[in-house]
Every structure is written in structure tokens, then in C-alpha cells.
Design brief:
The protein is mainly alpha-helical and about 180 residues long. The protein has a single domain, classed as Lysozyme (Orthogonal Bundle), CATH 1.10.530.40. It has helices spanning about 10-30, 55-65, 70-75, 80-105, 110-130, 135-140, 145-155, 155-160, 165-175, and strands spanning about 35-40, 45-50, 50-55. A 3-stranded antiparallel beta sheet has the order 1-2-3. The relative contact order is 0.10.
């Protein structure tokens, strides 16, 4: 039962935020895959959880700060628990969110569908590669989600990410509705 001092509007907003976060988690899990033990990503990087690159310096620092032995994960001597996967995901999504805000300072005011598409791309690409979507950014600044989706399609990213691309384009297009 929610605290008595929280209004119904605030309760509804918190519920909506929780649903959005859960949808992001499930979609990212679908798009990236889910593994409790190490695997090689498409570029040969040791990866674990939901797209958590074990060659990334920030990721290694995060693991070290939490006393996690990255070498044991990389060698396959250790695996993650489901809660460990979720913790790595939350760290990665927070980084993706901060990168997405740098790419699109108006992110929070956009429709949830546009937010979801931008966050997914940020999670997948990182800020440096996301910043290459210059025309998509212009379309977002004009609140033209159809054009933003067109720019997603007209990219190497779209060709490389297989089923993820059409899914995320459909989500971006739905922001216009």
C-alpha cells in the first residue's frame, strides 16, 4: 500500500514510470540477449548479462568497485545471478540514459515511444556513434518522429542490427500517434 502522503496523481506517475522501466528492460533483453555466463559479442568482445562488454573500461571499473572479479567472469569460472545481471543492466541503462540526454536534451519531454527508441539506440551504440545520427537529431528537434524513424532506417546501424532495427523504427513511428 502506498504511503498516505502521496497523491493519486503521483501514484499513477510512479506506476507508469515503473511500467516504462520494465518495458525498457524486457525490450533491451530481447534486443541484446540475456546470458548469465560470458559470451563473445558480434565484435568478439567478452560480454555478459544484457550486452555488458567486459572490455569496456567503465564497466571494468564498475565491477572492481563492487568487488566482482572480472577475470573470473571472462574465463568462465564464475557466472552472474539474475540479480547480478539486473545490476549490470541498471548501470548500463543509466549510462545510456545520460548519453541519450547529451544527444537529445529534450528526451524527458518526448513521447515514451520516442524515449524508448532513443534509449535503446544509446544502449546499443553509445554516445559517440549515436552522435553520428545528425539528421535524426534534427528530426527529433522538429518533433518529426516519422522523419526520425526514416533516418534510423537510412543507416548502417539498421542494416547491422537485424530484427532490432525494424522493432525500434516501429516504436519511433508510434511516437507520432
Amino acid at each position: 500500500m502506498p504511503p498516505a502522503n502521496i497523491s493519486q496523481v503521483e501514484q499513477a506517475k510512479r506506476a507508469e514510470d515503473a511500467m516504462f522501466k520494465n518495458e525498457l528492460f524486457e525490450r533491451t533483453k530481447l534486443n541484446e540477449g540475456y546470458r548469465e555466463s560470458v559470451y563473445k559479442d558480434s565484435k568478439g568482445n567478452p560480454t555478459i548479462g544484457i550486452g555488458f562488454n567486459l572490455n569496456d573500461a567503465d564497466n571494468l571499473r564498475y565491477l572492481k568497485e563492487r568487488g566482482v572479479n572480472a577475470e573470473a567472469l571472462i574465463s568462465g569460472k564464475e557466472a552472474l545471478t539474475p540479480s547480478g545481471v539486473k545490476q549490470l543492466y541498471v548501470f548500463s541503462m543509466n549510462k545510456a540514459y545520460n548519453d541519450a540526454l547529451k544527444y537529445d536534451p529534450d528526451l524527458a519531454s518526448r513521447p515514451r515511444a520516442a524515449q524508448a527508441a532513443i534509449l535503446d539506440m544509446s544502449f546499443n551504440l553509445g554516445l559517440t556513434k549515436l552522435n553520428k545520427f545528425v539528421e535524426m537529431k534534427k528530426a527529433l528537434q522538429a518533433n518529426d518522429y516519422q522523419k526520425a524513424a526514416d533516418e534510423m532506417v537510412d543507416s548502417n546501424w539498421f542494416k547491422q542490427v537485424k530484427t532490432r532495427g525494424p522493432r525500434m523504427v516501429d516504436i519511433m513511428r508510434s511516437a507520432s500517434k
